[in-house]
Each structure stands twice: as structure tokens, then as C-alpha cells.
Amino acid sequence: MQLPLEFVRDEATGGFFKNPLMWLGFGLPTLIFTLNGLHGIYPAVPWFSLQHNLNQFFTERPFNALKIADGVGMKRRPLLVFFFVASILALVCSAIIHLWLPYRHNDAVLIQKAQEITEGSKDSWEATRRLSKWVAENISYAIPGGSTARKTYDIKAGECGAHSLLLAAFCRTVGIPARVVWGCMYAPNFGGCFGQHAWNEIYMGKGGWIPVDATAAETDYVDSGHIRIGAFESLTTALNAKEMEVLDYRVGSMKVGKAEEGPPEKYKAYVGNYTDTANNNVLKVFVQDGNLTVDIPGKIVLALNDPDEAGLWYSKITNQLYFIFKKNDSGEVAEMELHQIIPLPRKSSPEKLDENVPEKFRPYPGKYFLAALQAEFTVQYKDGSLAVDDPLAKQTIKLQLPDEKGRWVDEFDKNAIFFDLDDEGNVKSMNIDSVSRFRR
Asked: For residues 173 and 329, what is the distance between their CA atoms, to the nearest angstrom?
């Protein structure tokens, strides 16, 4: 599979037919056979003998069994073999070179960004944590994603392999040895399952290779649900497991899926069933393994971190999912909100913006790309505020003016939008805060 993949490799990353080793391996035997062919027609053209008697080198058992009694002796073709081996080695070298290209570390853009992220780090580990945190927070999950580190950086989206390629490239640009490894990872989706996954290992001297998983926001560790199979060798590497059986496991003092009796006092106020009045879906909130946990039937069981200063209960597996519990006038929890943050990197700005657009709205219009669904959202100025052309809903949704936190709530008072800026103050992405509400 490697050879045909090299044929179609992106020419921007070097390309199979631009590799000098490939042409060396191809050219030498071509030259030899061309000269020998011309020699048969024009004897004046020099020729290279490709047949030699090697019997003298094979006189002892068991090698003398290889002799051929043909009156001339055993004939071997050392030059032909040499050039054949040279051709194979050239192809192997080409494959090895391209093997590293997906996360090559000589890209000027990646070098500049990695140096910017790690500036002021006191040691390699702090630099690694900064780079891993940046990838976790700025690269959204999408299939398909960027097939190389640079493409992943450009579109700000990708699956686990893309996250890992980018982090490896970042680390290498600042002199930190890093590699991509693969295997499988346990996820609580659909009642719990193992799926193919990729993550990183960073070399820390005497500490050895330290695993980190930016895709899962495990920026300086990996949990015990990761099963490592090997180091990344090819873009075609795959697990494709048909069946996996868990022989034994331990999770605290309880088995997964069994709610603890007598939840801690701090969680009692939140435990219960919550119903989505729009479609009658029921979410169960309970305590499991010492954490407040939400069961979304048929989809996922989410363990939550304790609330932050703003009262947001973030999921332990991603910072793009969080819950808010709201109380009634009696101080009892009466409603739960599920927030999912959907990042859309900015793809382009308008070529020309209408002069009548007020200055405070001018930074935002443009096209924003949702890689997971291959959908392009357009933000425009309309009727005194911003509006979003939603290609999935096939409608234009008007936004209310932003609140003090910079959130633009839609005209239905359901979802909100906020924009992320880069270090120079330019808009780099639009984030949709999709909200689902549940009554207790």
C-alpha cells in the first residue's frame, strides 16, 4: 500500500516524483540496460557485463548446492542484483522520508507559532504542556480533518491523528523529541466502547517517553483507558478491531453503571430526572464513582467536574460540554441546561465590505467552516446587527446585540455566539453555544 500512496502524495510536501533518491534508483539500472541494448546494435557503444561466474565463492557445504553445472559454471548477476537492490532501497528511503512529512518540523509557520506559544517556558515540560494545551483548546474535533500538521493548523480542525501530528510537529520545532502512537481508547459513548485512537509521547530525558492526549484534553497525561499498540508508521495504520473483551477492571470501589447509595451531601440537590419539554427526552443525574454524572440515554454517560467560579459543571472528557443548574425562588434546583460549544474556524473575510457597515460590526463578517459537517456558515451585517446564514437549517438567523460578555444571542433566545480573537485582535473563529434545556 505504501508505494501507491507515495504516487498520490501531495506535491506541496515534496512528492514521490520529486524525490532524488527515487530518480537515482530508477536512473542507474535504466542507464545500464540502455547502453547494453545499444551495444547489441552498435558494437562501438560500451557495455556492462551483468553475468559473472561465482562458483569459486561457493565451495563449502551447504552453499555449493547452489552451483549450476551448465558448462560455464554457476552464473550470477551481481550488477543486476546491485541495481535492483539500489532501486528498492531508494523506494524505501523515499517512504521513510515521506513517513515523517505528515508531522515534519521545518515549516516556517509552525516554527513561529510553536516559539510564540512556548516563549518564557522554564523547561521542556512546561513548553510541552503549553503546546498540548494550545492544540486541545484551538483544534476542534472533526472527521475528516487535516491529513498533515500544517493542514490541521490551517483549518483548525481534525480527528485524533490530526491533533497528534500537529502536537508532534510543534514539539519538534522547539527541540523537544516527540512521536505519535496509536492504539485504542475507552469512551463512554453508547454505554461504553473502545475505539481506534492516536495520541503523543514526549521524551523527557530520564523521565522517558511521557504520554499526553491533546484530543481528549489530557494535556499532560493519559488516563488508563488508553491501550497502546505501537508507534505511528503510516497514514494507513489502522486497528479495525472486530471484538474486544474486558477481562477485569477496577473503578474505585464500584462497578461502572451502578449508582452509589447515599450521594455526598453536596450533590444531593442535583440528583434526579430532567425532561426536555420539546421532545420528552429524559436525562438522569446521579452520583457515580464520587462524581456527579449525567446519563444521556443511548448516547453517552458524562462524569462532571465540580462547578467552577461561574457555576459551570464541565464534562471530564471535553471542555466543549458543560451543564448549568438553575434554582427557583425557593432555592431548589428546577432546571438544567446542557451547553455544547461548537467551534467554527474563520475561512475567509469579505473581499469588500459595504461602507455603511458600522465600525463595531466590521471585524465579524466572513465565512466560517464547520469541518465535521463540511458546512460553511456566513456572517453578515443586516438590519443594525449581525446575522448568520445557516446552511443546515437553510435560513438566516438574526443575532441580538452582544451582552457585556460579548455573547450574541439569536433571535429565538435559544443559542448564543461568541468570537475568538488572535493576539493581533483579529477574529479567528466563531463559537456556537448550542443550548438544550431540561425541567426537573
From this structure: 56
Interatomic CA distance for residues 199 and 215, integer angstroms: 7
| Helix or strand run (H / E) with residue 335 | strand 333-348
Instruction: Report the C-alpha gap between 131 and 148 in whole angstroms.
Output: 17
Convert the pLDDT of each residue in 288-342 to its tens digit: 878 899 888 777 788 888 999 989 998 877 777 899 999 998 889 999 999 988 8
Strand partners, 274: 283
Say if strands 272-275 and 226-231 run parallel, antiparallel, or are unpaired: unpaired
Of 185, 186, 182, nearest to 162 (Cα)?
182
Q: Is residue 250 part of a domain?
A: no
Burial environment of residue 153 by CB neighbours within 10 A (0 to 12, 13 to 18, 19 or more): buried
Q: How many domains does the chain have?
A: 3
Last residue of a domain, one of 103, 119, 143: 103
Four-CA torsion 345, 351, 356, 361, nearest 10 degrees: 10
Helix, strand, or coil here: 198? strand
Question: For the chain, how many helices (H) and strands (E)?
Answer: 7, 22
Nearest to 158 by CA among 172, 147, 169: 147
> How many CB atoms neighbour CB 244 within 10 A?
12
Residue 94: which domain range? 2-103
Beta bridge partners of 429: 345, 420
Distance, CA of 236 to CA of 98 (rounded, Å): 13
To which H or E segment does residue 114 belong? helix 108-118
pLDDT tens digits, 210-268:
999 998 878 888 888 888 988 887 666 667 777 777 776 665 544 445 544 556 788 88
**Residues 97 and 153 both lie in one domain:** no
Residue 301 maps to a domain: no
Same domain, 41 and 115: no
Phi, psi of 165, rounded to the nearest 5 degrees: -60, -45
